[in-house]
Amino acid sequence: MNWLTYTLVGLAAFIFGIFIFSFFQAKKASIKLETEEFKKNMRKGQLVDVRSKQEFKSGHINGARNISIQMIAREYQKLRKDLPIYLYCASGSRSNRAAVYLRSKGYVEVYQLKNGLKNWNGPLK
Questions:
Q1: Distance CA 61, CA 63 (A)
Q2: 3-state class of 109 per DSSP?
Q3: Model confidence over 80-107: pLDDT tens digits?
Q4: Beta strands across the sheet bearing 31-33
């Protein structure tokens, strides 16, 4: 094999390693809760909608505050570390990214609505 083959194999292994690392990091960043359990516990902590401001205005869970995924790096300090955080978005992908970020900043009790609002069966404000 030539140097190009070794380089490509090494690069592929590196990218695969990053993918695996990211997957496990995201998996341990938060606990995903089914709708009923999320409803039952969300009032015990801070309820955060990480969708855009426009999405939030079109309908959100009562009591939620809007910190969009684009603003989480600027506004995460508004969240208390001594209270659990309950995150949701439309499908779960943005709340997952927010959970990873918050864990990296030292937040330990982070929960997500599994599959986001598409599985929500409660009222929206």
A1: 6
A2: coil
A3: 999 999 999 999 999 999 999 999 999 9
A4: 31-33, 110-113, 85-88, 46-49, 65-66
